[in-house]
């Protein structure tokens, strides 16, 4: 079973890296073109930092060691950060009159709405993949603890009364 969980983990890590690279590229393009000051730039910088951290951690944890499964707490934190970045992008897209936030059709068009929706879609997908990676890590961690626990052989635990 560890081989299957390792393969699933590698697939998740590659998906995390791809999603982070797409979001970093799109938001980085907008940051390079932005000339104003204020709040929207801070939102984009946050999203860019989350994408950069995701790229770095995804590449580090892609190296096949079993200790990568024990990083599930960090996977959960990065997932929550991606959900926050998704919320930031959803809040920013309301000003563009691009339609519903869940209508991701037409992502291949080369216009502002399609690029924003692509960044929004990949940030949501990244959040889900990081969450799934955390769940695989939790499953692996507690499965390993259960399998490595010493057998009790019917001994009584402290504090329990004997029936005799």
From TrEMBL:
- Record protein name field: Integral membrane protein
MARVEL domain span: 8-135
- Coiled-coil regions, chain positions: none
Q: Does Transmembrane helix appear among the keywords?
A: yes
**Subcellular location(s) of the protein:** Membrane
Keywords (A to Z) from UniProt: Membrane, Transmembrane, Transmembrane helix
Its cellular-component GO annotations read:
membrane
Please give the start and end residues of each transmembrane region.
Answer: 12-32, 44-63, 69-93, 121-142
How this chain sits in the membrane, per its record, is: Multi-pass membrane protein
Signal peptide (residue range): none
Tell me where on the tree of life, at the top rank, the source sits. Answer: Eukaryota
Could you tell me which InterPro entries the record lists for this protein? Answer: Marvel
Say if the entry is tagged with keyword Translocase.
no
Question: Main site of residence?
Answer: membrane
